[in-house]
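Reply to dn_fold:

You asked what the input looked like. This is it:
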Amino acid sequence: MTVPALVARVHHDSSTRPEDVQDIYDNLAATDKKLHWIEGTTRRFERYNYSPSAPSR
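and this is what came back:
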């Protein structure tokens, strides 16, 4: 079973390398998937504030 997937990450997160996030995304089995980079911050917990239904910042 596959479900749609949204990967939302802070691009300049000091604890996560963008290449690792890209590898995770690339290896998801879902065909309906999106990778969204959160820019303009280094605070990793900003991803918890991200909502795809929210207006663009």
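The chain has a mean pLDDT of 84.
Hope that clears it up.
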